[in-house]
Amino acid sequence: MPITVVGSVAFDTVETPFGRHERCLAGAATYFSLAASFFAPVRIIAVVGEDFTAAEEAVFSARKIDTRGIERAPGKTFFWQGSYLENLNEARTLRTDLNVFAGFEPKIPASYADSDFLFLANIDPVLQRRVREATPQAKLVAGDTMNYWIKDHKPALLEVLKGLDILLINDTEARMLAGNSNLVLAARAVMAMGPRMLVVKHGEYGATLFHKAVAGAQESRTFKTPAFPLEQVVDPTGAGDSFAGGFFGYLASQPELTPGAFRRAMFYGSVMGSFTVERFGTDRLQEITRKDIDERFNLFRELTHLD
Amino acid sequence: MPITVVGSVAFDTVETPFGRHERCLAGAATYFSLAASFFAPVRIIAVVGEDFTAAEEAVFSARKIDTRGIERAPGKTFFWQGSYLENLNEARTLRTDLNVFAGFEPKIPASYADSDFLFLANIDPVLQRRVREATPQAKLVAGDTMNYWIKDHKPALLEVLKGLDILLINDTEARMLAGNSNLVLAARAVMAMGPRMLVVKHGEYGATLFHKAVAGAQESRTFKTPAFPLEQVVDPTGAGDSFAGGFFGYLASQPELTPGAFRRAMFYGSVMGSFTVERFGTDRLQEITRKDIDERFNLFRELTHLD
Fold this sequence. Notes:
The structure is a homodimer of 307-residue chains.
Chain A: E1 3-6, E2 10-16, E3 19-26, H1 28-36, E4 42-48, H2 54-62, E5 66-72, E6 78-83, E7 92-97, E8 117-120, H3 125-134, E9 140-143, H4 147-152, H5 154-162, E10 166-170, H6 171-178, H7 183-191, E11 197-201, E12 207-211, E13 223-225, H8 239-252, H9 259-276, H10 283-287, H11 290-304
Parallel strand pairs in A: 1-4, 1-8, 2-6, 4-5, 8-9, 9-10, 10-11
Antiparallel strand pairs in A: 2-3, 6-7, 11-12, 12-13
Helix pairs in contact in A: 1-8, 3-5, 6-7, 8-9, 9-11
């Protein structure tokens, strides 16, 4: 079933211990779309500037991603520059130029109207809410956010959370949003804000899926996955968005959203995140095949299952 | 098969957000012994002072732990005081009184001579090596260490590593010992120092078992387990030692050390660590039964397995 995703398409300049890459095609919606496209049809809503050329367009079309929702605006595309030289787990932002993104007003093409799945990538919660309200047909809605919105735009974010089925955030964000350092209790508090499921991403340590308590079945509906072990993390940018794309894309490919489908989705999320960080930007997502994904999925199962 | 463990028996005064406990029976060898005793016969080598009474002795005898190797010395038992008020993941040491532990000379009772399993808990590597050399019959030898020995006593530690089959340490220690921040590469470097297996403990994020590379099978012999999710971590002290006890105790209970046995041992290690932190000191280890352990093992499998 088709997924609509709204979020950023950007150019990133990234420095890691493995080198420096100038103006990689990046942005949350880009990573999400590419990762999800291996599982389901993806339709993207974003804004880009005049520096977004046929070469970038080709990256999306190679994965059959519907770009009719990418608006071309006068000016430059969102630009981010970051460094992982001091800490490979957390970027230091050196520069952020919002450019055309500053005036982003998401427009949903009429052809996207039958998307049953909606993903609200990390953008201003006011925009997330607007897109959510404009897509009442969506049957499963997931979203992401970040510390900045939690800290300084909480009322708007709380409105978004009411309309989400699944929130995907990292450890720090979950603890900050809930005001509780115990992750199990933080998850419960976050789900009381709206989402019936919460995926907490632990970076190099994997992820946990929490479900809203159902009498007598609360604990057994939690699902934990470690991260796929990698010898070389070249560029961690986009790992979380790729996880979200693999997770949500896999769900959109399933005839029925069983508990087993959610578990496998967690594994596919980890697998997609693990590919992304092996090369700079979206390079790895552009070269892998569904066969590579399933091979790694099977290896990952071996690495984590008792028998 | 019986396990001999050498290490510290101590009294801890611990402060956490859940309260303060004075002079809990503690120490690495204590946590290890209690956790391992649910799986195999355990024999302990340690030193205690005159403040170690029949009440403490009874904690070991209730779990049928052989204490003939606990030497009674004039003076006081090793005492440690720590606080988790600022950070529940890392203790701030407020006081360490080595007391009788300062002159510890491990003596191995003749009745321990048929122990096939040997665990060298975190003590001076010079003593670890002495015990290793005095127990040539041991068929599987595992050990722990800490940042202090890695930093300031590396040559002695490297001698110990040559005699170990399995080293169990945490993330920071593995990275420090190897001088490499990538865990997969750090593990490979540590195993080149001697141990053919390395268990890296990630605290609230689980643990990873690495095997020395075997041609063509290297990756698939890594095993990752998340940690069991807990609503309340009352006192994290002893989690790593309890993990080691569950892990090594389970191995000692097995007729054959198959890859499957190591995988299940990782799960039992996580389970034992998760019990320990639910109450202060060894209180929880003193009250649980093998049935509680197996129930949590099964729940943990559900929380982590695809089907």
